[in-house]
Amino acid sequence: MSETKSPALQYRFDGPEDAPVLILGPSLGTTWHMWDRQVPELVKQWRIFRFDLPGHGGAPAYPAGSVRDLTDRLLATLDQFGVQRFGYAGCSLGGAVGMELALRHPERLASLALIAASPRFGTADEFRQRGVIVRTNGLDPIARTSPDRWFTSGFAAAQPAITEWAVQMVRTTDPGCYIAACEALAAFDVRADLARVGVPTLVLVGSDDQVTGPAEARTLVAGIPDARLAVVPGASHLVPVEQPAAVTDLLVRHFSTAWQPAFDSATGQTAIPATPLQAVLTAAPPQPVPIAEIAPAVPAPQSGTRPDPYDAGIKVRREVLGDAHVDRALAQADEFSGDFQEFVTRYAWGEIWDRPGLDRRSRSCVTLTALVAGGHLDELAFHTRAALRNGLTPSEIKEVLLQAAVYCGVPAANSAFKVAQQVIREETTPTE
């Protein structure tokens, strides 16, 4: 066993140096220790590589704002040791990294296991709202509610030490890195690309997972050509922690029988992979065994010849204002107002907000000031929400409004403070 820190990612090796490498990727808010109970069995066949997300587990706090960035850092770390080909198992955000590897670096991936994963994790609104709460209140509210998301109620009650360990993992995470990881998950969406995942894939999910449950797992299986589904009874989101024996058994079976050989440059051929795994569980108490299934792949979309500003505009508009707000605006559009909604999306959001000259924080500052000057209080409310989502803190919004009071007038700023104060209270109050 060796343990150290890397400029790219904090990592740990376990197992024989001459064995094939199997990587275990963590979930948001956890450390490599979430895999502790799998390692003793896995090292019998593989050299296990575990890593911490930036700012997690004492790792250097260099935020990774996208799944692609995190994947590039992982590969840079592996390159230091000459690890070119490997198996990969990832939980939640770690699963997103696995999908990114399969789509962008298939030549390096021998086999894949996606645990508590999804091609799209909830909605962008949910993760950006979590970032707003952390930015305002710190990680304590998220830490206190983590056991509710991660474990079944029976497990949490029966295992208070593990529950407290989970809370402390989140509390000791760097807030900026946690927020960046939330942004990475908010932007992650590979639903249209699943058919391009070309390695044998085990999709594993807890039966009681309320974060990325069996429905999301079946979406993965339906889209990935060579995938099997295993549902672990009596487990929630952190299924490797809650049902370690069942998860270990499934991983051993999958990676023992579905390890795709590398492309042979001499012959120009790739060996035919092994027959896909049929999932079997040993979890107690006995109940209906997990299922394995395949469904038709989702066809990849046809790419256009010239990007339409509307496409970029609707994406930016949703990221800044939130899906719920945009959905309401579009749903209310009719024959009279529909052209205006298209105009706003294409030109305000696709042409202006998407320009690289200013970041979104700066654009929010400009927008808030302009709305105060014009007395547009209705739009000030939802752009205050947007400013929080774009990374402005309540204190920074206050400074913008104070600045506006000097140049736009005290009465206008007085009304603006009332609107912004109410929005900030609503958006930054933690939900228990």
Q: Which tags fit this structure?
A:
single chain; 432 residues; alpha/beta; 8-stranded mixed β-sheet; 18 helices; 8 strands; 10% strand; disordered N terminus
What does this structure look like?
It is a single chain. This protein has 432 residues and is an alpha/beta fold. It has 18 helices and eight strands. Helix 4 (124-137) runs antiparallel to helix 8, helix 5 crosses helix 7 and helix 16 packs across helix 18. The radius of gyration is 24 Å and the shape is elongated.
Question: What is the 3D shape?
Answer: elongated
Q: Name the helicity range.
A: 40-55%
| First and last CA, distance | 41 Å
Largest sheet: 8 strands, mixed
Total count of strands? 8
Concise overview:
This protein is an alpha/beta fold and 432 residues long.
